[in-house]
Amino acid sequence: MGSVEKLREVILGEVLPRVRKPARYTGTELNAVHKPASASLVRVLLAFPDLYEVGMSHLGLKILYDLLNQRGDAAAERVYAPDVDLEAELRARDLPLFSLESTAPAASFDVIGFTLQYELSYPAILNLLDLAGLPLRSADRTGPWPLVIAGGPCAYNPEPLAPFLDALVLGEGEEVLHELVDLVKTAKASGWGKAEVLQRLAGVPGVYVPSLVEVDYAADGTVADFRPAPGVTLPVRKRVVADLDATPYPTAFVVPYAEVVHDRAMVEVFRGCTRGCRFCQAGAVYRPVRERREETVRRLADEVLARTGWEEVSLTSLSTGDYSCLEPLLQHLVRTHGPEGVAVSLPSLRVDSFSVKLAEEIQQVRKTGLTFAPEAGTQRLRDVINKNVTEEDLLGAVAAAFDAGWNSVKLYFMIGLPTETDEDLQGIVDLAYRVLREGRSRRKGAGGRVRVTVSASSFVPKAHTPFQWAPQASRDELRRRQQYLMDRLRDRAIDFQWHDVELSFLEAVLARGDRRIADALEEAFRRGAKLDSWGDHFSAARWAEAFAAAGVDPAWYANRTRERDERFPWEVVDPGLSRRFLWREWERAQRGETTPDCREEKCAACGVCARLQVRPYLAGGRQGPEVQAPEGEA
Amino acid sequence: MSRPRVRLRLAKGEEARFISHLDLARALERAVRRAGLPVALSEGFHPMPKVALGPPLALGATSRAEYADLELSQEMPPAEVAERLAATLPPGIRLLAAATPPPEAKALMAECAAADYLVEVVPAAGEAAWDPDRAVADLLRRTEWTVTRSGKGGNGERRVDIRPYLWGLAYLGRQDDGPQGGGHRLAMRIQTGSTGGARPEEYLPALGRFARVAVERTEVWLSRQGELVPALPWERG
Predict the structure, then answer these.
(1) Lowest CB count within 10 Å: A335, A342, B160, B193, which one?
(2) Cα A617 from Cα A230, distance rounded (Å)
(3) In angstroms, what separates the C-alpha of A3 from chain B's closest C-alpha?
(4) Which residue of B has its CA nearest to A255?
């Protein structure tokens, strides 16, 4: 019996019967791809550094899984962070992390690819490498295989993970993935060593190899310079697909047996968002807007449902309410698939009564209520963050929701936004009560209690956004602001939810951290940090000790106001936005000046289209404004 | 006028043995939807296909006797239901039979009375002298076998005498070609349903100490007008 068969027998025969929800680890779901082992295959392990329930809800890896498995010369398998009980079993028996499909040791793959969806999953990445039996640091993994790479939104500040990863892929994976597989194939056939593999990887557009870049720091602790190795060009610019409509999209999604967070079919209707909310990293780094044509979305929805049997199809994007052909598309889907018992859902609603009308047409779930995100409590602050929503929009939306029969609405806010004062906090309170009064008067005699949920998360400044210069409010100040709201949102019909300030602080440190953070990250992992994105596994004290042991002052990263000309560690990579645009937006923010969505009025010269040679594409033939080159560039 | 029903007999194989009862229900609903069967939908905001399963099976067990009733929105011969569904079932779940239950048949859970299991055990290290015939005879002689069960949500414990639920137990001999070769095979018939029941594993401590246990459900029995009948009429040939 080979060692892989032996591992499989022990996992299935002895380990899985002892853990909770073992269906998360068997890899036998519908549409999972099992390719026979073959030395000629490039084997890629797609790793999600969080539990199966979360990872299986994520679209990006499904796209990559499908693209890889469509190739005759590649095989993709999956792995998620094991739950605590499985991890304990594996460690007690000295068994390695295994892939779901073939129960093969993670370290036996040619490539392990992590997705970086949120900063708090970084400890889980280290834990997965450790469970795989691999050294954490790239420099200590002397052979080329498995190559440990990563991609996803957090790759736009790769530096805290720089010593651990062999390479990062910036931007959309559909094209660069094939270039990577081809390169790995050649590398294996030619017997290249790790140094050669990394050097060649650095030559692939969109690929950043941290070990080939040295960072010099100035006396004040900021970045003085990046020193790339010969042949390496900086910054590494992101990859985008120019024509999303023509880009392959998976329809044979893996359908989980076990319950997962978003257990439903997903059809991506567009990529990018140009509303220009100044706090939003996704809105910055996924530009420009590229919609799929309505008939393409219809066809994809038909195919996904036929091949999965899901009872719900969600139209996904950063802001689906903005999709050009949303109304006819929804009507079509409800008419075609409603009789089969399939629900159509929107992941988020725009704050206006039109969106509520659409939600009503598709009978969006009533139990949980409708969610709106005004983000800030006063018009002044909404202008600062460029959230193009008025109080009138919000009141119109909630009125429509109550009239349509909803009893509860949820309002999302952020606290700690730049320039926020107590007046803005009071604005949140006033708005919540106004919504509650609106509900009570409109639901009078209708039965059921009106409920308003107010959720206030703490603002985390992110790289490559206009707020990258901004400090995060101190933890004490954030706690005071939470308390301010808590003291005033006392009505029993208002449910106030907030986030652990310590988690938001850590997120802020990692989001704008540099390479020196890596030591603290490793230290925190050695002290037991694993599934920190799950609040109950998180320990602020452990992180404080880790930062102290690594000689890192976390507040310097989270709470410092950056100078205009400071070089940022994340500028080693480039999502296409011009720095002048971001600075101009930061200045406009402080003056409370808004910037219109570039699809409506005028190109804001953010630089993405001009630099990446792409154009916004709107379905239904609508043309956006002419693209302007960013200032100082022809 | 009740709507047409089709009763399915399904096998849950190795690939599906770790999926829960609820997971199986969901998987079946989705297979029914992929097959485009004319299945009746429940009322409400989230209409679900009317699929009703028989008694739950413990996680980790395989089965060749998982039953489910489909309520159809229009007549369709069971053979056609079977053909279409067989093509869309997920890995590890196979269709063994489909038939129209007799008109007097109630819901599966209302009638289910007992289930048969094939249990394969490998004695733990240091138990080489284990005598299966004697172990079986000893358990059958007992008038009481009390086990501790944890309450819902893991809090609270109850002591239950499950000896009355063990309707039958026999030693079948040693198996060399089973999934875990070298095991001893036992057949058990255990009461199941609303008036009390037990799982095969709960009796094993009374029989010995085992390194490995494999459980397969082989039949589900219904009680109808005082008689014990299989959930579907036996297939012949």
Answers:
(1) A335
(2) 38
(3) 18
(4) B27
Q: Do B23 and A23 touch (CB under 8 A)?
A: yes
Q: Is the ipTM of this complex over 0.95?
A: no
Residues of A in contact with B41 (CB under 8 A): 341
Quote the CA–CA distance of B93 and B107 in Å, as a whole number.
22
Q: Comparing C-alpha atoms, which of B76, B75, B69 is closest to residue B107?
A: B69
Chosen from A9, A28, A103 to mutate, greatest number of chain B CBs within 10 A: A28
Q: What are the structure tokens assigned to A42, written together?
A: 């490039």
Q: What is the CA radius of gyration of chain A?
A: 24
Closest CA relative to residue B21, chosen from B107, B87, B109, B83:
B109
Does residue A146 have a cis peptide bond before it, meaning omega lies within 30 degrees of 0? Answer: yes
Is A257–B60 a contact, with Cβ atoms under 8 angstroms apart? Answer: no
Examine the pLDDT at B55 and tell me if it is beyond 60. yes
User: What mean pLDDT comes out for the span A507-528?
Assistant: 97
Measured between CA atoms, how close is B57 to chain A, in angstroms? 14
Q: How far apart are CA A348 and CA A317, in angstroms?
A: 9
- Starting at the edge strand that comes first in sequence, how are the strands of the sheet with A343-345 ordered? A265-268, A312-316, A343-345
Q: Is the peptide bond before A49 cis (omega within 30 degrees of 0)?
A: no
Q: How far is CA A48 from CA A29, A125, A312, in A?
A: 17, 8, 23
* Binary contact (B33, A340; C-beta < 8 A): yes
Q: What span, in angstroms and rounded, lies between the C-alpha atoms of B235 and B231? A: 11
| Residue listed under structure tokens 């109080």 | A391
Within 8 A of B59 by CB-CB distance, chain A residues are 17, 22
- For position B127, what pLDDT does the model report? 83
- Reported as type and span, the H/E element at residue A434 is helix A422-442
Give me the pLDDT at residue B234, please. Answer: 57
Judged by CB atoms closer than 8 Å, whether chains meet at A310 and B20 is answered as: no
Which residues of chain B have a CB within 8 Å of the CB of A341? Answer: 33, 41, 46-49
Instruction: Please answer yes or no on whether A26 and B46 come within 8 Å at the CB atom.
Output: no
Predicted confidence band at B103 (pLDDT cuts at 50, 70, 90)?
confident
| CB-based contact B91 A32, cutoff 8 Å | yes
- State the Cα–Cα distance between residues A344 and B38, nearest whole angstrom: 20
Is the CB of residue A241 less than 8 Å from the CB of residue A174?
Answer: yes
Which residues in chain B touch residue A309, judged by CB atoms under 8 angstroms apart? 29-34, 88
Interface mutation vs chain A, best among B46, B66, B73, most A CBs within 10 Å: B46
Question: CA-CA distance, A78 to B130, in Å (whole number)?
Answer: 42
- What is the average pLDDT value for chain B, to the nearest integer? 91
Alpha-carbon distance of A174 to A182, in angstroms, equals 14
Longest dimension (CA), chain B: 62
Distances (CA, A) of A5 to A97, A196, A219, A550, B10: 15, 33, 56, 42, 28
**A229 vs A5: which has the higher pLDDT:** A229
Judged by DSSP in three states, B100 sits in coil
**Cα–Cα dist A196/A194, whole Å:** 5
pTM value is: 0.95
CB contact under 8 A, A311 and B88: no
